[in-house]
Specification:
Elements lengths: L1 E5 L9 E4 L9 E10 L2 H8 L11 E2 L3 E9 L11 E4 L2 E2 L5 H4 L10 E2 L11 E5 L3 E3 L6 H5 L2 H14 L7 E4 L5 H12 L3 E6 L2 H10 L3 E4 L7 H7 L5 E6 L3 H9 L1 E9 L12 H6 L3 E4 L5 H12 L7 E6 L3 H10 L5 E5 L2
Parallel strand pairs: 11-12, 11-14, 12-13, 14-15, 15-16, 17-18
Antiparallel strand pairs: 1-2, 1-4, 3-5, 3-9, 3-18, 5-6, 6-10, 7-8
Helix pairs in contact: 4-5
Length: about 350
Amino acid sequence: MKAVFIREQGGVDKLIYGDLPEPTLGPGEVLVRLHAAALNHLDLYARSGGNRVRVGPYPHILGCDMAGEVAQLGPGAEGVKAGQRVVVDYVIKCGVCAYCVTGRDELCRRMVNMGVDVAGSYAQYVKAPFQNVYPIPDGLPYEEAASMPLVFHTAWHCLVTRAGLQPGETVLINAAGSGVGSAGVQIARALHCRVLVTAGSDVKIGRAKELGAEAGVNYTTTPAFSKTVQGLTDGEGVDVVFDSVGTPVWDESFASMKTGGRFVTCGVTAGYAANLHLGRLFSRGLTVMGSGGRSRREFADFMRMVRQGALRGVVGSVFPLEEAAAAHKLMEDRGFFGKIVLRIP
């Protein structure tokens, strides 16, 4: 099969387009013929070794977002049929640890990540446990479907499960041009919340408004964006801040929260260090939380909304699989809105 893989970590020059053997199925596994794979920052870390990410045995196939059709079922695979159009959840849970058997699989201590620990989506075929395969509507393009799993799963987990976002609340979403940011805008609007955003360009602010954001601030030209946020909320601040950026926006995000506000982070793409004012934290009743793992139930929850047409993938650019290096460069340059997708031959 055709695939993009690495034999060692490093720059985009380490990405190899070539032939590798098709996966061999085991019990309970499904073989999926992929048609599209979407990029995430995790792909960049897996390729480069950044953020201390180490990958499985070489040659290693990158990629954790994917969509295609079921090609073959292994013994004991249930709930899916050959030829079915599907997306795949890249996080494989053990199903037998104390957390999994008590319904808290987001805390599974033996989880394995496709594209990091085992082969991922930059290939014509991938294998996955049948529990990780979810049907998609016939009218949903593979490129759009592939753009959704990681970012919508993450945004749903952060906004709904962790932050407990409620209808009518106001949420500030940082990096609205990113995949997880654009997903967050849609989820918050689906919950009938008021959405404010930040992004690195006016163009991205405009695109976020098309998705349902009410207003936005360009943090490149207006780094002290909390003043604008306070002005938009009559000096109250927002109920929830959803962030994936990290250090550069931390202080202003903290200053944008109202009394009793919640801050939830799912990434540190621009830096992980932050100064936390504990006095303001306790006196204003603020909550700061990380995303942690994500559950199968949450994946099923947001996928129901996808099948109902309430949530749509945002595809910014599409590259053929053999141009994965160019796709990685675009993601590194941050000159995109939504998701970067690889079309698989």
